[in-house]
Design brief:
Layout (H helix, E strand, L loop, with lengths): L20 E3 L2 E5 L3 E3 L1 E3 L6 E6 L9 E2 L4 E3 L10 E9 L5 E9 L3 E4 L2 E5 L3 E8 L5 E6 L6 E4 L6 E5 L9 E10 L5 E9 L6 E4 L9 E8 L2 E3 L3 E7 L1 E3 L5 E4 L7 E10 L3 E10 L16
Parallel strand pairs: 2-9, 11-17
Antiparallel strand pairs: 1-4, 3-7, 5-8, 6-7, 8-9, 10-12, 12-15, 13-16, 14-15, 16-17, 18-19, 19-20, 19-23, 21-24, 22-23, 24-25
């Protein structure tokens, strides 16, 4: 997700009616954060108010009589950001305004989820509000993996998965990016396949289920297999034991779910497959990501 940009209609200040200015004229803050506005020149007894812009919402946050603004928290923001207008009026009726955007995530890392084979590489980018150097690190279990800066984009890094780990068919690596100035962080994830996937996982498009649910199916060598054991490795949703129906978690933390299937045959070993399902389901109902066996 990118950070919001100002529209010309969001902020209009008339110099003819302004004897002071709010500084800065435009601010971006994270959800739940506070910011102290000032004026140039300094003016006493100002009345501070906050209101939605034409593209804003009713959840505009609060501002004190001293000009200290507190942003709404993420559960009170629809979408990824909200835009508000901060006004200051002096006793004579002169006023000034500033534009403020509240973002749900003040650090963004993209893509949020990727998949790759052992030894392969994937590129990631990150952005942050204001200043602060970004610190990248891998939090995971794939031995020998590495994360290095690249020259493709600003704040871009390349993740390289370590060599094959035959004991773990699927390994989920977390890549955490931290703003060293604010100590806030955001994570992205890479799912590593350490062996060929023997199960092709997909959605049964013929199933009639309530909204927020999908029926899963697994195929081995093209044939439907009813003995798959299903699980959610990570993501916003769940699967009941013994069932093959995924139910998404409304307003869940993650915009995806990693669904796995396993079948064990004596003498043949364990077959594994997975699917990364984007969420919410309603938005991606036509997108059925699957990984075919090689």
């Amino acid at each position: 997700h990118s950070f919001p940009t100002r529209r010309s209609s969001d902020l209009a200040v008339s110099p003819a009616t302004t004897t002071f200015e709010i500084t800065p004229a435009e601010v971006i803050v994270g959800q739940g954060a506070s910011y102290a506005f000032t004026t140039v020149p300094e003016v006493k007894d100002l009345q501070w108010t906050v209101e939605p812009t034409a593209t804003g919402s009713d959840n505009v946050g609060q501002i004190t009589c001293a000009g200290v603004y507190t942003a709404p928290t993420s559960e009170n923001i629809k979408g990824m950001y909200v835009r508000v207008r901060v006004n200051a009026t002096d006793p004579k009726g002169y006023s000034s305004s500033a534009l403020l955007s509240v973002v749900v995530r003040d650090i963004t890392v993209n893509p949020v989820i990727q998949a790759c084979d052992f030894g392969a590489s994937r590129d990631l980018t990150a952005g942050t509000l204001g200043g602060g150097a970004l610190e990248w690190r891998v939090v995971g279990a794939q031995p020998g993996s590495a994360l290095t800066p690249n020259g493709h984009t600003r704040n871009g890094h390349t993740y390289k998965a370590g060599p094959q780990n035959i004991e773990n068919p699927l390994v989920l690596e977390e890549i955490k990016v931290t703003n060293k100035l604010t100590n806030k962080s955001q994570s992205a994830f890479v799912l590593i396949a350490n062996k060929d996937m023997g199960i092709a996982v997909s959605v049964d498009a013929t199933a009639c289920l309530p909204a927020g649910q999908i029926k899963l199916q697994g195929r081995i060598n093209g044939g439907l297999n009813e003995g798959c054991k299903w699980a959610v490795l990570m993501g916003s949703g769940s699967i009941l034991p013994g069932a093959n129906v995924f139910t998404e978690e409304v307003s869940g933390q993650y915009p995806f779910a990693i669904i796995t299937a396993t079948v064990t045959y004596p003498g043949l070993g364990t077959f594994v497959g997975y699917m990364i399902q984007p969420l919410p389901l309603q938005q991606f109902s036509a997108l059925h990501a699957s990984r075919e066996s090689k």
